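Ops channel
N.P.: pipeline sanity check, posting one input/output pair.
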């Protein structure tokens, strides 16, 4: 037997000896130290598994309704609509698809923001008991309430295009009734871009979004190659070619898994501070009255400008404008 053959044999003998199956030492070259025992190897595997299971993955999911599969008119969007109760279920199921996919990909903590209408659309009894849900208004953070720097990623379900986009089902930004444009640092933004900037101020990247083709294209043009699930193709403000609810859930599942599978590829979307906010109203009276506030400038008949030190301050201003009503009661 030549030395090369003895070397190969020695390697095999060394491995078996380390596992306690044989006691012979290698016969070629200097004596070697004993390899790890089976008990040592098992212990190492346990330690590694414990380290993996202890890794935290915290995910935030903001949910709107206009981008849910099948939604096209007010008939699906509010309690007065004849299809609202059915579409609450579809909205809940699309969110559950994201939750379950995130859990399968390793998410250990999930917070969901019910961000449509009155903030009480999701059927909360359908969610796993370890999920937390943000509901109702007003609230600091708006559609991203409860998000902070402890989160690893944010996702958008059921989002829609902006009010300045000529395409998109039910396209608007924050208020379809009152606002004609929302701008950050001179650029018109979608709700998704605004919310991504809010998350970015905490160092949290947006990694996934679902909605119609206009919404997902718009978000990708601003946020980069985030994972998307296109739930329908816009045919007009009140019409679409839509997936079925089941097919939409399958696309969301695939997209969320893909996003979390390449989490390291995403960067937070950060806007320069201080942040200049511009709100253009469909009517001129709100612009006139809000300009009476210190720190608010009236840019034109319908537009005001507010400069905030950061996205939290800007978001609080938007929440005030969108929620304040002098007729409010406790």
């Amino acid at each position: 037997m030549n030395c090369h053959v003895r070397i190969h044999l020695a390697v095999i003998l060394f491995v078996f000896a380390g596992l306690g199956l044989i006691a012979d030492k290698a016969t070629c070259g200097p004596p070697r130290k004993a390899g790890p025992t089976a008990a040592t190897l098992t212990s190492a595997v346990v330690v590694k598994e414990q380290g993996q299971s202890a890794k935290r993955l915290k995910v935030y999911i903001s949910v709107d309704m206009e981008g849910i599969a099948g939604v096209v008119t007010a008939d699906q969007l509010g309690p007065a609509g004849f299809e609202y109760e059915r579409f609450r279920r579809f909205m809940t199921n699309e969110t559950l698809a994201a939750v379950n996919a995130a859990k399968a990909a390793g998410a250990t903590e999930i917070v969901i923001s019910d961000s449509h209408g009155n903030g009480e659309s999701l059927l909360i009894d359908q969610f796993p008991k370890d999920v937390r849900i943000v509901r109702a208004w007003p609230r600091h953070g708006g559609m991203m309430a409860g998000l902070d720097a402890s989160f690893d990623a944010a996702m958008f379900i059921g989002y829609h295009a902006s009010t300045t986009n000529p395409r998109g089902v039910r396209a608007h930004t924050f208020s379809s009734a009152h606002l004609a444009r929302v701008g950050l640092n001179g650029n018109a933004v979608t709700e998704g871009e605004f919310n991504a900037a809010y998350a970015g101020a905490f160092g949290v990247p947006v990694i996934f979004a679902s909605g119609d083709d206009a919404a997902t294209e718009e978000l990708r043009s601003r946020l980069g190659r985030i994972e998307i699930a296109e739930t329908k193709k816009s045919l007009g403000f009140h019409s679409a070619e839509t997936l079925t609810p089941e097919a939409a859930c399958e696309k969301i599942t695939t997209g969320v898994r893909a996003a979390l599978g390449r989490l390291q590829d995403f960067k937070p979307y950060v806007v320069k501070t201080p942040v200049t906010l511009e709100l253009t109203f469909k009517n001129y009276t709100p612009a006139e009255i809000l300009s009476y506030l210190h720190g608010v400038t009236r840019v034109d008949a319908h537009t005001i400008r507010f400069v905030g030190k950061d996205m939290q301050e800007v978001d609080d201003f938007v929440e005030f404008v969108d929620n304040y009503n002098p007729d409010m009661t406790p």
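N.P.: looks fine end to end. The chain has two domains: 3-52, 56-265.
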